[in-house]
Write a structure and sequence with these properties.
mainly alpha; two-stranded antiparallel ribbon; 18 helices; 4 strands; 4% strand; metal-binding; heme; Cytochrome_P450_Monooxygen; transmembrane helix
Amino acid sequence: MLLSIALVCVFGLLFHLYNSIVTKPRRLQSALRKQGIIGPQPKFLLGNTLEIKKSCEAAAKVASNGDIVDSHNCGATLLPFFGQWQRQYGEVFMFSLGNTQLVHVTQPEMVREITTCTSLDLGKPTYQATERGSLLGNGILTSNGPFWAHQRKILAPELYMEKVKGMINLVQDSALTLLSSWNIQIEAQGGTADIKIDADMRSFSGDVISKACFGSNFSKGEEIFFKLRALQEASSKRVLSTGIPGMRYIPTKNNRETWALEKEIKALILKIVKEKRITEAGSEKDLLQMVLEVATINSELMSQNAIDSFIVDNCKNIYLAGYETTAVAATWCLMLLAANPNWQQIIRDEVLQICKGQIPNADMIRQMKQLTMAINESLRLYPPVAVVSREALKK
């Protein structure tokens, strides 16, 4: 009897594996080919990951030669395989990461239709939740359906433009602190200085989002930011193994590092939450306070572990969505202005004309048309999020 049950379990597991590794991918590939969508031939278990790795290594070798870059097409350097496949298979093509099938789309009309679709049947990819689970959990950036709608209802009002305008004083304070530190470096080096701004811009955006959303300064959130960045790097190494079943459970060196960072970040966030509950009861509500209130309201319906996960996942989502992306976008914008001194002068003149020696406020910034153009062009050339994925959750 026990032997029969064991055999049934083994055959059931084998059937499940065969279906996920062979049958389902082939069925999806066949359906796409019938619609005229083709792509590179995937290899068993690995999909097209070897081709992707080879293409990236070749592009990195060319970039490391020190040649002067005369194009802003960063996608050709970072994601060279997309351009190669597009030329070979057409504007819309399919490829595979392990046993995960993807369709690559770049036409503005189709992208707009996908990103503006309001159906809950089109959502965040399950492979992305698997790949970034340790980084984002089941927060608003990875969740789907009613749970996503519930989280959005909580978080979205805190990020409306009127709310953001009310944060301008926090941005001003952080910006003045950053500029003061740069002035000190310049004076110390006799009036001119080379400043590597990457870390400074991350500190700046981290300081702003900590004050605006968590009521603390950057020094309190610095350790969380540092560990989140380490977790982000560790997670990125797992991308090419995303579609290989069970890889995320194997205790490889990278997986062990990821698990340890995930635990440390959870402990740090819950420590801030505990301090906030004790010291800031009755204070003005910020984003973390809203998350805590919702968790408290649902405490009878959720276990303590579920409540902790809800709080930690959304805190990580807020940190990453507002911290790294803002720093990256601002750094590229400053780089482009440095490379185009004529535009730098145009924007400087506009700022002097509108602000008349005052610190810019929300109304002044809205009047800066030239600055807005420069920011939009920077975002077009160097988007902080270059790839957006969606999955049809139903047929």
